[in-house]
Every structure is written in structure tokens, then in C-alpha cells.
Amino acid sequence: MTGPRLIVGVIVMGVFLPLILFFLLDLRTLTEMFILSMSCFLTWGVADLVTSIISRPRLLDRSPSDALKSLDLTEKQARQREREGGTGDPTSN
Asked: In which element (H, E) is residue 72 found?
């Protein structure tokens, strides 16, 4: 996460959005304001974390169905090696 992105995220998701929601929802106490602010900021942080994980090169251009297909393929290959009598470990002779 870069510096400017963090600063903008703190200001927008930790201050502006909670203030707007605070007034639109007609909330009354500071505690409600702080809870709203922390929940917005936490949600933004989790979303940013998930985005950074998904944007890793090995996950780009990969749909969930592609991931399941490749998982199924590796499981089938492992089962086939077991049926052929090999454990998949070259040192186990």
C-alpha cells in the first residue's frame, strides 16, 4: 500500500464516509460515530487486502472455475499415480 493511497483511504473511509452516514442515519452519540468510522475503515482495509491478494500475477486472468478445474486435475493426477503403484515420491523405491 502506497503512502498517498493510505492517506486518501484514511480520510475518505475513516472520516468523510462515516460523517455522511452519521448525519444521514440521524445518529446521536459520539460512540456511534466512532463505531461507524471504525467499521468503514476496517471494511476498506479488508477489501484492499483482498484486492492485493487477487492482483498477484499467478491469480490474474483466472476465474474461480479455472481454479477448480486445475485443482480437480491435480487431484486426478495424484490418484492416478497412487493407482499405478507409485507414491509420487521418487525416493520411495
From this structure: helix 64-83
| Digit-coded pLDDT (tens) for 19-44 | 999 999 999 999 999 999 899 889 88
Cell of 46: 479488508
Q: How many domains would you assign to the chain?
A: 1
pTM of the model: 0.52
SS3 category, 43: helix
Say if 24 falls within a structural domain. Answer: yes
- The domain in which residue 28 lies consists of 3-83
| Distance (Å, whole) CA 74 – CA 72 | 6
Distance (Å, rounded) from C-alpha 28 to C-alpha 43?
A: 22
The answer to the question of residue 72 being in a domain is: yes
